[in-house]
Fold this protein.
Amino acid sequence: MKLIFATHNAHKVAELNQLLPKSIKLLSLNDIGCHEEIEETGKSLEENSKIKADFIRNKYGLDCFADDSGLEVELLDGAPGVYSARYAGPNKDMEANIQKVWSELDGETNPKAWFRTVFYVYFSGKEYELAGRVEGTIIFEKRGTGGFGYDPIFVPKGYQKTFAELGEDVKNKIGHRAIATQSLLKIVKQNC
Ligand code: IMP
């Protein structure tokens, strides 16, 4: 059975392929010859993941899913959220994005934040919206060299270190994408 992951990111596809049962063949957009950039014009993670999944579903009529993720800060009413990659401008400058989060928070003590992922899934004749979330706090210095994005300023609840210090093993257990992936696995296993 084939399932298309509506992403050009081969790393994301390889990671998920290891978790899925062998009976499922996960394909990226490149694998199916789709080289278009699907525009993320939605105003929420939910809208963007659905836009990407719908694009593939409508064009190819195949089982597929798409993801969208972001950092949501409670005191900033959920910003940067769906705009996480471009918070400080269109060129996706992570250093500027982090500086903007700090400046908006203006030295607040232990500001609460969470990473959230949404998967929109078309599988075996049904559709699903799945979510994963990991809570923590923002710190006002960058710590650690692992991970990407906002990882160096995010300390997950129950830990003293940032995601960038804790590394992939911890993220793969408690991270937002890992949690959404577990829900996807359940659906796939129920239907195989
Ligand atoms: P995407 O939807 O996975 O491409 O994520 C969009 C943006 O959200 C990224 O460019 C990052 O800025 C931020 N983000 C998403 N997931 C993570 C994460 O696990 N760590 C740090 N930043 C993240």
The chain has six helices and six strands. Strands lie at 2-5, 25-27, 64-73, 112-123, 126-138, 154-156. Residues 2-190 form a domain with the Maf protein fold (CATH 3.90.950.10). Helices lie at 10-19, 45-60, 94-105, 163-166, 168-174, 176-190.
